[in-house]
Every structure is written in structure tokens, then in C-alpha cells.
Amino acid sequence: MLQLCISDEIHAACPAYVAAVVEAGVTPGPTPAALLDEMAAATEELRRTLTPDGVKALPAVAATRAAYRRCGKDPGRYRPSGEQLMRRVVQGKDLYVVDALVDLLNLASLRSGYSIGGFDADRIEGPQLTLGIGREGEPYEGIGRGPLNIAGMPVWRDAAGGVGTPTSDNVRTRLTAATRRLLVIVNGYDGNAEALRRTADDIRALLRRYGASDGGTLRLVRHG
């Protein structure tokens, strides 16, 4: 089990932060029809109930945007992934379809508004991940984004560098067809442990249905 640590610099900027962490054995595969149906239902519900401006007001989204400002990043220019997904849907665009693991995590993010990191645990260097703040010139290649300026952005780092931000995870630890050990981090800048646990439970249930998994383990991680 990986050790996760919240740095003092993040705690000073975002004292309410808590992470819900799921670790599970998985077998990746194509996105099944039933998962596509769940994605379509969530998409329709959001389009029925939200506007683009309404997305920013959701507690999970608003708290992540506020955390970006406190850490030194413009959340309008570098939107957190939970907000990106919701805005895409309410603007009338469909969710991307990638594979079962990526899509079930995107579905959980869409339902909750939380930015969720999904990592191949076997590609993480060392026994620990630490949440800190990105530095000027720090190298980082975001999935589907190429080189990403993570200065002033919350970032999870392993022994080799950054692996995940709320805006984009790093290609180095991305999920692939070869992934067998999944690490999921639900980033709770709102500090709402109950809501985080519900989202993590949703992910575990989705893994049981679509990830050839027993749902793995769940824990909450705070500073100190």
C-alpha cells in the first residue's frame, strides 16, 4: 500500500483538503454497453439541471478553483478536470469514450464534480506520493495536453516527479491495457469527507461492475 502525504505548503494554502484513496486490482477492457448507458444517463441529468455558470458554483468545483487561486494558478485558464467534464457535457458535447477504467472514473467525476486522478500503481516510483505545489520550470507532460505548466498548481509527486494534478494526470503513470493495480485519488479541496466517501464508494461499485475487480480498499488521507 502506497503512503500518501499532504505537504505543509498545501496544508497552509488548503487546510480543509482531504483525499479519498482507492487501491484495487483490475483487468482493463473496452467500455461495455451498460457503462455507456450510465454515462448517457449522467450526461442527460446534468444537461437538464445545470448551466455552464452553475458548474462553477458546485461545492466540489468551487473549492478546487479556490485552491488553485490560493496556490497561484488561474482556474479559468487551467480548469480542473471535474469542471472540464461537466462544462463539456452542459455545452452539449458528449463524453470521450476511452476504455472501461478511464470512463468509469470520468463518470464518477461527472456525478460528483470532484477532480479524480487514476494511476497505474506499478508505474509509480518509490513507496510514497506527496501532494505539493508545482514549481516554475518543473517538467510535466499531461495526458492529451503535452507539456503542462504546473507552476502554482497542486501536484502529487512520486520519487521521479509529478504524476497528477487536478487539471491533468501525467502520461508516465497513465492507465493502459497493461494496468493491473489501480490507484485512485479523489481530491477533496472542500474537506467534505462524507461526500468524498460517497464518490469513492461509487468508484468501487463501478469497478466491481466494469473493472473485473473486487472494488479494492478505501481510505481517507489528511495532513498530519
Tell me the CATH architecture. Answer: 3-Layer(bba) Sandwich
Average predicted local confidence, pLDDT: 97
Q: What would the principal axes of the Cα set say about the shape?
A: globular
Number of strands: 10
Task: Supply database-style keywords.
224 residues, alpha+beta, Phenylalanyl-tRNA Synthetase, Chain B, domain 3, 4-stranded mixed sheet, 10 strands
Q: How would you describe what is shown here?
A:
Helices cover 37% and strands 22% of the residues. With 224 residues, it is α+β, with helices and mostly antiparallel strands. It has one domain (3-221): Phenylalanyl-tRNA Synthetase, Chain B, domain 3 (3-Layer(bba) Sandwich), CATH 3.50.40. The strands form 3 sheets. It has a 4-stranded mixed β-sheet with strand order 1-4-7-8. It has a 4-stranded antiparallel β-sheet with strand order 3-9-2-10. Strand 5 and strand 6 (146-147) form a beta hairpin. The model has no long low-confidence stretch (mean pLDDT 97).
